[in-house]
Inverse folding.
């Protein structure tokens, strides 16, 4: 079974580029150039230097001793939370901003959910001196205020998306409309492995540094580069794509993709696409999608703005359908429990998104001699207000 | 029976007016009354919009009308039920326009058969890629005598325009500028160079200009460069005015044509 994208831009039957003619030229320009540009030695050199000295890579692979004791197994955390700007998102924005420059684009647009991708985009735009416009759902602007402040500090314009559920899906719609309106000078930095081909593949490649490092680091620590499990949360699925990438063709490494169940998969307030979705088209890609019987996209729900998305990247739809990855769904409450657990056992406050991956540890049933790598995709600074509210820590 | 779109372009050589409306807006049962009223006022062709929750190529006006229509309960089966029997009342060419996902869920095969039964003449699905159409659906469209209308933009290269033209029958939908629907650039339809370039290509299909056409000036400018023009957002705004459906339609169409 092939888990990588094929020549036509598909992962099995998922993927493709279902875009209106207004976007065809832009997407086609990128499709024809992305692999060529990424293969240029100067491009690689510039990117690697930025990843090392600016982002702070490689990020540590940390053996979480007390967490391991609790679950009676061996748990390593891939510390993407220690990247500059606090999440894995910057791996991709560094790559794409260099791509945008090679293509001669002057104006950068992006969508954001939790705000981590927006911050990472605003950051590289400041670094390169490029104009930056970030679309963000009105609801998310409210619940992720610290990231909105950071984007403003960095000189980005944050535009509220006020249609639909006013979250990530709607922010993505607005960014795509902006791109239709500004096809010549504008580059769209998509933050996840979603959207029309070649975006899912390009973003996965930029994020693949995560599993590349895990392999080398795990080999150094344990003598083998293959863990028994790699666990990552999935909204659109970029951190999972990066953590899985170099293990896709190693079947003995079990891949665990963790979705947000919200208030529960049967509650009507959920974002667990693999359970609730059917094949359809969203944001230019054929994938699994939460929708009504009539094909209208439904409003997802999760406490985590970064997982609050009704679709999933086409790679993950393929991993789900082919059985290559195990899909779990974690409720808001379970994720919050995992936040507190990691904070108190290891002194690391995780992002709400990453907490969903941590909460799946109890579901895996790993043996004492097995090794689990959890991709700790981001840190929890942006979620502190939620945490203080939910853990009733105000005024203590 | 001959396709009504083809017949229309054979009969009328210039100044064709096509109007788009979102089915289910302003009220669920307005589809047939709007069609009949548009015909009565001398419109040449009608595009019936099938509302979608995430209309990527549309500006705020059509987004909002789609939201209202969906809230009112519009669905593809509902629309087909409303349009059943329409051919006993009018022979105006009818085109269904919508996004791929709802059609995919209904089933393309079933959708095209049903459209034919009702007497629909053409289909526009902006996010259905040309390559998918040619590979999977073209034969089905032809069997059901349905035109598949594709869009081109100022940025579409000549070779691709020719390819699109070779797979289209009906007309080529010339998007006036790089924009979503409903963007208006004052009273100017600026892309004269693009219109002339396409005009000189000698395409098999007639061209209709759409996006940003919103009043008499822009309509007549567009008609100087193509066989006619398409109005959508401006018409939907007119439907939201106070007054009866009949009055609003009459007032708006007269303001364009006179």
């Amino acid at each position: 079974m092939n888990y990588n994208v094929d020549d036509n831009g598909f992962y099995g039957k998922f993927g493709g580029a279902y875009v209106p003619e207004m976007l065809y030229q832009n997407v086609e320009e990128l499709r024809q150039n992305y692999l060529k540009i990424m293969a240029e030695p100067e491009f690689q050199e510039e990117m690697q230097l930025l990843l090392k000295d600016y982002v702070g890579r490689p990020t540590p692979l940390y053996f979480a001793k007390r967490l391991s004791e609790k679950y009676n197994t061996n748990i390593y955390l891939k510390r993407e939370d220690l990247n500059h700007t606090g999440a894995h998102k910057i791996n991709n924005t560094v790559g794409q901003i260099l791509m945008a420059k090679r293509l001669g684009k002057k104006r950068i647009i992006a969508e954001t959910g939790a705000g981590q991708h927006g911050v990472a985009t605003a950051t590289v735009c400041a670094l390169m001196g490029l104009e930056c416009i970030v679309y963000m759902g009105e609801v998310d602007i409210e619940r992720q205020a610290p990231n909105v402040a950071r984007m403003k500090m960095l000189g980005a314009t944050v535009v509220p998306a006020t249609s639909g559920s006013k979250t990530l899906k709607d922010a993505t719609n607005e960014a795509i409309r902006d791109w239709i309106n500004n096809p010549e000078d504008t580059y769209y930095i998509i933050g996840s492995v979603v959207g029309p081909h070649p975006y899912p593949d390009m973003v996965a490649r930029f994020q693949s540094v995560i599993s590349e490092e895990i392999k080398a680091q795990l080999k150094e620590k344990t003598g083998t580069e293959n863990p028994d499990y790699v666990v990552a949360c999935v909204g659109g699925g970029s951190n999972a794509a990066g953590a899985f990438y170099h293990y896709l063709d190693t079947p003995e490494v079990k891949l665990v993709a963790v979705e947000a169940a919200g208030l529960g998969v049967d509650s009507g307030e959920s974002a667990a696409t693999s359970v609730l979705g059917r094949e359809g088209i969203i944001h230019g890609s054929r994938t699994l999608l939460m929708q009504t019987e009539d094909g209208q996209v439904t409003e997802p729900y999760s406490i985590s703005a970064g997982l609050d998305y009704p679709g999933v990247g086409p790679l993950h739809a393929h991993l789900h359908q082919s059985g290559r990855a195990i899909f779990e769904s974690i409720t808001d409450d379970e994720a919050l429990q995992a936040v507190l657990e990691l904070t108190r056992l290891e002194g690391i406050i995780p992002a709400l998104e990453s907490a969903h991956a941590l909460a799946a540890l109890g579901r895996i049933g790993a043996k004492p001699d097995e090794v689990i790598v959890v991709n700790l995709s981001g840190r929890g600074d942006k979620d502190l207000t939620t945490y203080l509210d939910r853990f009733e820590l105000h005024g203590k | 029976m001959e396709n009504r779109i083809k017949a229309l372009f054979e009969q009328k050589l210039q100044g064709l007016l096509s109007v788009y409306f979102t089915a289910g807006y302003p009220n669920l049962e307005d589809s047939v009354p709007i069609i009949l009223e548009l015909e009565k006022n001398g419109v040449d062709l009608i595009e019936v919009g099938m509302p979608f929750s995430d209309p990527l190529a549309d500006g705020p006006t059509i987004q909002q009308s789609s939201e209202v229509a969906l809230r009112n309960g519009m669905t593809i089966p509902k629309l087909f039920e409303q349009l059943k029997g329409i051919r006993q009342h009018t022979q105006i060419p009818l085109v269904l326009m919508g996004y791929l996902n709802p059609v995919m869920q209904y089933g393309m095969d079933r959708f095209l058969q049903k459209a034919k039964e009702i007497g629909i003449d053409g289909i526009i699905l902006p996010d259905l890629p040309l390559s998918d159409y040619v590979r999977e659906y073209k034969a089905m469209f032809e069997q059901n005598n349905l035109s598949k209308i594709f869009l081109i933009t100022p940025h579409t290269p000549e070779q691709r325009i020719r390819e699109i033209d070779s797979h289209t029958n009906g007309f080529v939908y010339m998007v006036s500028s790089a924009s979503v629907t409903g963007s208006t650039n004052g009273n100017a339809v600026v892309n004269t160079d693009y219109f002339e370039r396409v005009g000189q290509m000698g395409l098999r299909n007639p061209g209709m200009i759409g996006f940003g056409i919103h009043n008499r000036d822009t309509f007549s400018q567009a008609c100087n460069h193509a066989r006619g023009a398409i109005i959508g957002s401006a018409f939907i705004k007119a439907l939201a005015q106070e007054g009866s459906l009949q009055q609003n339609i009459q007032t708006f169409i007269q303001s364009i044509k006179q």
